[in-house]
From TrEMBL:
<dbReference type="InterPro" id="IPR045069">
    <property type="entry name" value="MATE_euk"/>
</dbReference>
<feature type="transmembrane region" description="Helical">
    <location>
        <begin position="388"/>
        <end position="406"/>
    </location>
</feature>
<feature type="transmembrane region" description="Helical">
    <location>
        <begin position="221"/>
        <end position="246"/>
    </location>
</feature>
<feature type="transmembrane region" description="Helical">
    <location>
        <begin position="267"/>
        <end position="292"/>
    </location>
</feature>
<feature type="transmembrane region" description="Helical">
    <location>
        <begin position="130"/>
        <end position="154"/>
    </location>
</feature>
<feature type="transmembrane region" description="Helical">
    <location>
        <begin position="194"/>
        <end position="215"/>
    </location>
</feature>
<dbReference type="GO" id="GO:0016020">
    <property type="term" value="C:membrane"/>
</dbReference>
<dbReference type="GO" id="GO:0042910">
    <property type="term" value="F:xenobiotic transmembrane transporter activity"/>
</dbReference>
<feature type="transmembrane region" description="Helical">
    <location>
        <begin position="160"/>
        <end position="182"/>
    </location>
</feature>
<protein>
    <recommendedName>
        <fullName>Protein DETOXIFICATION</fullName>
    </recommendedName>
</protein>
<dbReference type="Pfam" id="PF01554">
    <property type="entry name" value="MatE"/>
</dbReference>
<keyword id="KW-1133">Transmembrane helix</keyword>
<comment type="similarity">
    <text>Belongs to the multi antimicrobial extrusion (MATE) (TC 2.A.66.1) family.</text>
</comment>
<keyword id="KW-0812">Transmembrane</keyword>
<feature type="transmembrane region" description="Helical">
    <location>
        <begin position="418"/>
        <end position="442"/>
    </location>
</feature>
<dbReference type="GO" id="GO:1990961">
    <property type="term" value="P:xenobiotic detoxification by transmembrane export across the plasma membrane"/>
</dbReference>
<feature type="transmembrane region" description="Helical">
    <location>
        <begin position="89"/>
        <end position="109"/>
    </location>
</feature>
Amino acid sequence: MENNGETPLLVSKNVATNAHFTGDVEDIAPINGIKDFFYQFGVESKKLWYLAGPAIFTSVCQYSLGAITQTFAGHVGTLDLAAFSIENSVIAGFSLGIMVGMGSALETLCGQAFGAGQVDMLGIYMQRSWVILLVTGLIMSFLYIFATPILLLIGQTEAISHAAGKMALWMIPQLFAYAINYPQAKFLQAQSKIMVMASIAGVALVLHVFFSWLFMLKLGWGLWGGALVLNFSWWFMVVAQMIYILSGTCGRAWTGFSWAAFSNLWGFVKLSLASAVMLCLETWYFMALILFAGYLKNAEIAVDALSVCTNIVGWAVMIAIGFNAAISVRVSNELGAAHPRAAKFSIVVVVAFSILVGAILSLLLIIFRHQYPALFANSLEVQDAVYALTPLLALCLVINNIQPALSGVAIGAGWQAAIAYINIACYYIFGVPLGLTLGFAANWGVKGIWIGMLTGTVVQTIILIWICCRTNWDKEASMAEKRIQQWSGKKHVEGEQ
């Protein structure tokens, strides 16, 4: 294999004998000319969309569970909407960031191990992740129990804090569903078993819409009804995925529960924490938008308007998260199989599609800017505030469609720790202070906060693109091989054929 004089690849015999995992025995040939580029673009597009299509559908369905509950809460009352928005964005959002972040360590290890043909390790990795995330869930449950005093402490209004705190107590079962669901998802995703996840999520969404309407509006149960249905929907997905995994459909990837899941836990914890820091910094960044809006004058209207906008951004970002999942699988599988050129070219393809999809969504939002606010709130004040934020929302859709895809590259390559430092600098040292300065000191309100924080996202996205362009992908393939050997517990032999 050609390596252009860079770090020699360490290719295990698993790569040659398990080529069907990534679809190619050898790496893609060097691209020469436009015709070659478009041919390879078409080939890679098919591989990407085979993963991204079902992943996008799954992400949209799962996000829509909370978003639909929030939409129904907007038709119950402004306090109900504000309470659910704070609970969903601050309490559940904080927890979700940790759970998804720690689960992304599994994404790196499972994807690279599957690409190298070491399928038997996937079930062990998933069980280790379950242990770590369930313990994390027990710790995080105190955040739910003491949500009311925490929200009061950080300056939220008394009415919103008490209502959101009560909602948080009702949502503790969802926290433990997160702990089991995300390792399951990464386990299935690494094997490209995305269609089953999409099917389960689709059924859950249909049931969720009907029962949310029934309990929240028809029977008048309000937020209690929403919490009941939301918990049920998440646990439905967990149980359905578990039945699929235990049924034997995953072959050597699942051979049963094993005590090996409790070995090397501390090493797995450290890798999971690095992953959690990276993704939590991203998740909490936009969660902070809702929090800061709570300090503005007329806080209830500001929180409601911004929660509608972040709700829409969240739906759009679910498409990007589908790309995130797909590119993570593509990069990790190709690096695990020692295909550095294929890994690099897959990034070009996913960025191109991310920009295109973001632009289409922004255009649709602008076209229907007079109609969409009424779908999310009955209050004319809230609708007017959302309409005023539409230009900024449209720009946000484009930027936030590219950034998650690039984060998927980082997860697939195992760069979580390095990206965490970049996120701290771009988001919290630059973006947050700029947003607070524009929002409060310059008196621009919600627009100022959002503009400043969006600027931080733009800077982070530019840096990620620069890193992808400058990376030595031959060296990354070598590092993936070493990582697989380390976590499988097998000794690495250089030059093994």
